[in-house]
């Protein structure tokens, strides 16, 4: 899940756009505010209408005749990235779940296009990170976070489809999990954990978090114990190596030779991923303590990663950074909604709503309905890139929020 925009196509194919973040793409200043905001979020229209407006912008500016989606409208308008495409499937699944069935054929046709990313030369399979807009040219590294997230996206599509479509989504989600298991990217370095990608540069929280989500969810659906065993293994590694007891939050990553260097920045979306991982793990193992762990993590996010002045999630805890991003900061809303779905505590929805409103003020072009890649909370310093994944995530979280208006 990495969005570093390189100028050279050859570099782009090898190192681009996984759903991780690079050190050169960084966050807003520190948060604070352990209590939920008390004022009512202000929107000029309903969240479902906002989600549909975002979808219309995506259709008009990103969608291709192949039912792929351009990476962005500027520097990479001829590139198609794996996690951007599946994020759009995720967004469309949320619209369908919110009652807009018009998104379903788009979702299914993009799912069919995704086969172009699959490594057919390797019996283990796995998704490459990039193809051309017509589906040709798949190559380069394969990313644990991209494949784990893709499996989770497909399981949400599985939830809202039927018949052959439902089975196809489940089968491909299992294929993603099976690639993770057989990829060779879990080893004993740093005591276990998945490497970020096939180049093995580091072991991040988010790569392992989405893998844990996928294994837990698949065990719940299929009852196949291999998925439970992997969920347990990943959970143990994350808790033993990536949890910072002082803040109650997960750190960014481990890298370097020997015992490894821990990068202790705390990112909003890493911890939102772990909220969902804990919820799913608790359900899979019938362990109620994991809901308590998810709630504690949510409270820690709202203490450390919340900007109380603008009422939105920061990118991470590096105090030198002053930017927010719709996808990575928006993930915080999904985490809060997942908590509300479990315990019906309205405080989670208050954070979820305010975060959407903050991102709309910071990053949304009110005329075109586009979201900028990075901006300040006040809507200042907007970057020129309009990234497809940011549009997808805003569509998704607004569609999710619309169910609770």
From TrEMBL:
Region annotated Disordered, chain positions: 21-42
A GO biological process this protein is involved in?
carbohydrate metabolic process
Give the coiled coil ranges: none
PROSITE patterns membership? PROKAR_LIPOPROTEIN
The organism sits in which domain of life? Bacteria
Q: Name one Pfam family in it.
A: Glyco_hydro_76
Q: What is this protein called?
A: Glycosyl hydrolase family 76
């Amino acid at each position: 899940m990495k969005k570093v925009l390189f100028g050279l196509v050859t570099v782009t194919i090898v190192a681009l756009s996984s759903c991780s973040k690079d050190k050169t793409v960084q966050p807003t200043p520190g948060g604070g505010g352990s209590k939920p905001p008390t004022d009512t979020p202000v929107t000029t229209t309903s969240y479902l209408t906002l989600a549909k407006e975002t979808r219309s912008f995506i259709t008009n500016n990103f969608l291709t005749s192949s039912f792929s989606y351009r990476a962005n409208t500027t520097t990479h308008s001829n590139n198609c990235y794996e996690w951007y495409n599946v994020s759009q499937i995720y967004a469309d699944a949320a619209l369908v779940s919110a009652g807009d069935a018009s998104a379903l054929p788009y979702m299914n046709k993009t799912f069919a296009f995704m086969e172009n990313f699959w490594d057919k030369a390797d019996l283990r399979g796995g998704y490459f990170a990039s193809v051309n807009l017509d589906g040709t040219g798949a190559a380069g590294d394969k990313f644990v976070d991209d494949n784990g997230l893709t499996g989770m996206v497909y399981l949400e599509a599985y939830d809202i489809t039927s018949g052959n479509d439902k089975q196809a989504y489940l089968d491909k989600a299992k294929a993603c999990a099976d690639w993770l298991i057989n990829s060779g990217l879990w080893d004993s370095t740093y005591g276990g954990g998945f490497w970020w990608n096939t180049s093995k540069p580091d072991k991040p929280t988010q790569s392992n978090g989405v893998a844990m989500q996928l294994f837990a969810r698949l065990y719940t659906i299929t009852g196949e114990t291999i998925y439970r065993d992997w969920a347990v293994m990943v959970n143990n590694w994350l808790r033993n190596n990536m949890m910072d007891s002082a803040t109650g939050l997960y750190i960014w990553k481990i890298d370097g030779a020997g015992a490894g260097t821990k990068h202790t920045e705390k990112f909003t979306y890493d911890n939102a991923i772990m909220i969902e991982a804990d919820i799913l793990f608790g359900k899979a193992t019938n362990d109620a303590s994991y809901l308590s762990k998810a709630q504690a993590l949510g409270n820690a996010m709202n203490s450390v990663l919340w900007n109380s002045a603008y009422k939105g999630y920061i990118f991470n805890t590096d105090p030198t950074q002053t930017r927010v991003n719709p996808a990575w900061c928006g993930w915080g809303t999904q985490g809060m909604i997942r908590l509300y779905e479990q315990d019906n505590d309205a405080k989670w929805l208050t954070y979820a709503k305010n975060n959407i409103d903050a991102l709309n003020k910071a990053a949304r072009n009110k005329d075109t309905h586009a979201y900028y890649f990075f901006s300040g909370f006040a809507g200042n310093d907007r970057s020129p890139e309009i990234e497809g994944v940011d549009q997808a995530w805003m569509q998704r979280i607004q569609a999710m929020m619309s169910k609770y208006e």
